[in-house]
Amino acid sequence: MSEEQLVTGGCLCGAVRFECKQQPFHVCYCHCGICRKSVGGVVSAWAFFPVASLKFTQGDPTWYASSATAFLGFCRTCGSPIGFNNTEYEHICIAHGALDNQDAYPPQKHWYLEDRLSFLDLQSGLESISCLPEA
Question: How far apart are CA 75 and CA 85, in angstroms?
Fold first, then answer.
């Protein structure tokens, strides 16, 4: 992947669009209950970008304060998950499903695998970690 390749994405209806001139520095699946609720799925997937490098080019997500420092972003029109931002970090997690070229950024790890739903059968062989990585 070239550092110069533009990463783009947005919501289902197109009201929110973003771009980043840097590739994600981390891509993962997360099995925690908060992430599952935020994306409405049995597992979530996130791509991490430096906050300073990500630019919203059309519209802005609506941010929901899920804690004192964490915010979940979504499109106010179609409800699509856009991202997760924690003011204590210098990175933003973008919902993998919001990326235009999802196939180019396969997840590298599972987070909180111990919280996975019992019926979810994983045969990926990816590393499993139980904490958020440092940027």
Answer: 15
- DSSP for residue 124: -
The pTM of the whole model exceeds 0.90? no
- The residue type found at 11 is C
Helix residue spans in the chain (DSSP H) = 33-39
The rounded radius of gyration (Å) of the Cα atoms in the chain is 14
Residues in contact with 90: Cβ distance below 8 Å, sequence separation at least 6, in sequence order: 50, 51, 52, 135
Instruction: Say yes or no to pLDDT of 33 above 80.
Output: yes
Token reading at 134? 């440092």
Rounded CA-CA distance 71/65 in Å is 4
Q: How far apart are CA 60 and CA 125, in angstroms?
A: 37
Q: Give the span between the Cα atoms of 132 and 32, in whole angstroms.
A: 11
Beta-sheet pairing, 70-74 with 62-65: antiparallel
pLDDT for 135 beyond 80: no
